[in-house]
Prior knowledge:
With 371 residues, the protein is mainly beta. Helices cover 8% and strands 42% of the residues. The chain has helices at 2-17, 161-164, 209-212, 325-329, and strands at 29-34, 37-38, 45-51, 65-68, 71-72, 74-79, 82-86, 93-100, 106-115, 125-130, 137-138, 144-153, 159-160, 165-166, 186-187, 191-195, 203-208, 215-223, 233-234, 238-239, 248-254, 259-267, 277-283, 290-297, 318-323, 338-345, 352-360, 366-369. The strands form 7 sheets. A 5-stranded mixed β-sheet has the order 2-9-8-4-5, with no helix packed on it. Strands 11, 12, 16, 18 and 19 form a 5-stranded antiparallel β-sheet that branches. A hairpin with a 5-residue loop joins strand 11 and strand 12. The longest helix has 16 residues, at 2-17. The chain is globular, with a radius of gyration of 24 Å.
Amino acid sequence: MRIRLLASVLLLTFFSNAPMQAQNNELPIITTVSPSSGPLEGGSTVVIDGASLKSNCQITCPLTRVYFGTVEGRIVGDHASRIIVIAPPHAAGVVDIRIVLPNGSTAIRKAVFRYGQAGVEAQEFERILVPIASSDFPGAYESFWVTRLSVYNDNDRVVQENSELLFYSGIFPRGSSLLPSKKATILPPHALQAIRPSWQPGVIVYARKDVADGLHFSLRIRDTTRQATAYGTEIPVVRERELRTGPIILLNLPVGERYRQSLRIYEVDRSSNTCGRVQLRLFDMSSGETLASREIELTNYEGRPCTVAEYLDRHYPNGAQIHSLAQQLLPERGSREFVGLELRPLSVGLRYWAFVTIGDNETQHVSTITP
């Protein structure tokens, strides 16, 4: 009996003192940092390549942290061989970059990033929102939708997918561009590249700023059951500079029984652990009278509240979707045919975008209403 009791005590002591993570025996290494400089106010998207940059955490772990000098940056993507981080504000000068893993291991690159000298070396990235990035999927009324995403490289040189155009895992058939691969996708100059999306509601793409303006995206959805020969519907691809900080007003939303409306709201910033809130208002377009209103709490892409940063998948936008908008907010709409929709940010500093898809219940044709 004493032997069993002693064994139980020893086991309990072992598990209570054991760290709640599997240790990565290899020390982390930083090999390259791009860009090597940025503005004093911060905000540069910095790609750090290396090895063993992620510990094998299994249960509850603290976050990986990246420091520019002594100031912590904001991680927006991480993997064992690559971390993408937003540089924090800092005084002018050259700083070290230090990565601290949850298991305590540290990688440091001395005097590798210069503040206040952003020139040709500053290969900063622009974020681009692809609102719908799902592959073939079923829809309402036995419809079946296909999504086609293409990018045209109008630059006079080749664009390298892994270093100049960063997609999330699965958007290219050969895997994730956030991870360095032996066979990176090449976008030839003045040529179109077809891309097959994966099963996600939307993604954030990173394009290096010196090539971003020469990259043109086309995103189309089509119902194959009723529009086998139709061209489909164009969905806007939104650049970071097009995100809104103020009201978004969408006009002429049809609310008759023939139509169904789906509102989609997107937020791509990761400046806090909360996704943000917006105020929705439906109004009469002739008088401005408020017909219905609702406060909307944005969530992560899985529909969970954004309250703990380690549970966010940083390659996907936060947001909200409301289907059958008129039926939910205007059940007694009578003979009213069209309304206006207004969104106002309630969270300070929120940068967001939104649009409405209109589905025709008779033809199943889909159209969009955008800002």
